[in-house]
Amino acid sequence: MATQGRDAPTRRLEGEFDYVIVGAGTAGCVLANRLTQDPDVSVLLIEAGGKDDYHWIHIPVGYLYCIGNPRTDWLYKTVAEEGLNGRALSYPRGRVLGGSSSINGMIYMRGQREDYDEWARVTGDSGWSWDAVLPVFRGSEDHHGGANAYHGAGGEWRVEKQRLKWQILESFAQAAQEQGIPATDDFNRGDSGGPNGGVGYFEVNQKHGVRWNTSKAFLRAAMKRPNLTVVTGALTERVVFEGTRCVGVEYRGDVAYFARARCEVILSAGAVNSPQLLERSGVGDAARLARLGVGVVQDLRGVGENLQDHLQLRMAFRVNGVRTLNTASAHWWGKLMIGMEYALFQSGPMSMAPSQLGAFAKSDASRTRPDLQYHVQPLSLDRFGEPLHRFNAFTASVCNLQPTSRGSIHAASANPEDAPVIAPNYLSTEEDLRVAANAMRLTRRIAASAALAGYRPEEILPGPAFQSEAQLREAAGNVGTTIFHPVGTCRMGRADDADAVVDARLRVRGVQGLRVVDASVMPIITSGNTNSPTLMIAERAAQMLREDRRATAPANVRNEVSASATPA
């Protein structure tokens, strides 16, 4: 009989399943759908949060009411960061069905060809190359433009154009073009719109102006199948081993439970929660586990290391003679009109993704590919969660797509209710500091372009006093904040890579029956928003699990699995 944990006699046996998935976020929802397409496979999906039935999840602008809300957000914070001049940041992560796809910016972005070709190089697996993953992206996709060489149609993951335009954004796009950033209508061909990047409106994961999260896209259909069990409001405490084989998980809902996995346990708890769950279960750096008072199952020094994130530098400019959301929503009648437009047409400001216009550019001419991404908004505020300014303004946030700084996320204790220690280590390298200063200079050049001159833009954040290289670096520490893209804390790598946590097939090294499938496995952050790349990882993982099951099953079962598997 399986060892059921420290207090096994008090734990109720939930049951035995072929696969137990921890986390019903982006990856978990995809896995639950794909694995249960085989009616002979039973799956338990465990989610710490609740159902995605909160109305603000589905209204796009509702991210304002989901981030920082304990109903939908883990409410994590970073440590005080030296690179941010001693500031600590809120670190939102979705705690609800759909995970962060229920509270994020809805931007559909894949990244650049070079990102995935580098994954293939560091893992030794060509299946992670751009040419190999492009069909996987296409297979999930339902693109508004239909199927072509780069996009798919008929998949679960709906991609639409945004349902609004602002003159200030149109003018910013023209200004960017004046600075050598060409116009593009597609950021997702692998080249960021061409060798010099591009500027255009982001495409979004919405359906008719309503958020399209992975719970709607993948989980709801799967929940109608009798071979899927979904448990919400259940905090996973640790995974359970017999020797070095993972045999199940302990979690706590109304009482304490143990669920056995006949085949595998899959951690899809995200880049923040998967590493600390491994550590609480005895997988991690042995010295660190000893300090936590956790027995060592497998000594893996890379667990929780290699944290990468995109740090956005928020620059705001006051403008004249053009309308922005600051004044459009300043009075009750403006709010009423905005509400009526959304109620009648699902368009207008309430259908807004947090950022509408995007641009990819180079921080300096020596770069072989774009290393900057802009998120441009027709609004301004002092900091997230505070009221909009009472004057017209726009914000141009710019992030380093390929940061060299590396941080960490580790369990603070063996208690699963204790928040982890999140230390992103932003702006800790000379290269990242140099890119930050150059990015702010480029933003100022765009703001000073002829296309915006009629609006007389006036920089209000960080302010024109910051001019020298040293001052710009200081300003980056003042205004820098996360754009919510943590990855890499259980990264994949070759067998001879001592810092890799999982192999190229996402199996945790040194143990059996345990995989990690979420953004934590990325060895290098993608050059753009990270939600859809995580979805692609889950699609590939589902195919790997099918292949491994076929390889170990009797001949008659292999045929059934092969027939039931739907190509990703």
From TrEMBL:
<dbReference type="Pfam" id="PF05199">
    <property type="entry name" value="GMC_oxred_C"/>
</dbReference>
<dbReference type="InterPro" id="IPR012132">
    <property type="entry name" value="GMC_OxRdtase"/>
</dbReference>
<dbReference type="Pfam" id="PF00732">
    <property type="entry name" value="GMC_oxred_N"/>
</dbReference>
<comment type="similarity">
    <text>Belongs to the GMC oxidoreductase family.</text>
</comment>
<feature type="domain" description="Glucose-methanol-choline oxidoreductase N-terminal">
    <location>
        <begin position="270"/>
        <end position="284"/>
    </location>
</feature>
<keyword id="KW-0560">Oxidoreductase</keyword>
<feature type="region of interest" description="Disordered">
    <location>
        <begin position="549"/>
        <end position="568"/>
    </location>
</feature>
<feature type="binding site">
    <location>
        <position position="96"/>
    </location>
    <ligand>
        <name>FAD</name>
    </ligand>
</feature>
<dbReference type="GO" id="GO:0050660">
    <property type="term" value="F:flavin adenine dinucleotide binding"/>
</dbReference>
<keyword id="KW-0285">Flavoprotein</keyword>
<dbReference type="InterPro" id="IPR000172">
    <property type="entry name" value="GMC_OxRdtase_N"/>
</dbReference>
<protein>
    <submittedName>
        <fullName>Alcohol dehydrogenase [acceptor]</fullName>
        <ecNumber>1.1.99.-</ecNumber>
    </submittedName>
</protein>
<keyword id="KW-0274">FAD</keyword>
<feature type="domain" description="Glucose-methanol-choline oxidoreductase N-terminal">
    <location>
        <begin position="94"/>
        <end position="117"/>
    </location>
</feature>
<dbReference type="InterPro" id="IPR007867">
    <property type="entry name" value="GMC_OxRtase_C"/>
</dbReference>
<feature type="compositionally biased region" description="Polar residues">
    <location>
        <begin position="559"/>
        <end position="568"/>
    </location>
</feature>
<dbReference type="InterPro" id="IPR036188">
    <property type="entry name" value="FAD/NAD-bd_sf"/>
</dbReference>
<dbReference type="GO" id="GO:0016614">
    <property type="term" value="F:oxidoreductase activity, acting on CH-OH group of donors"/>
</dbReference>
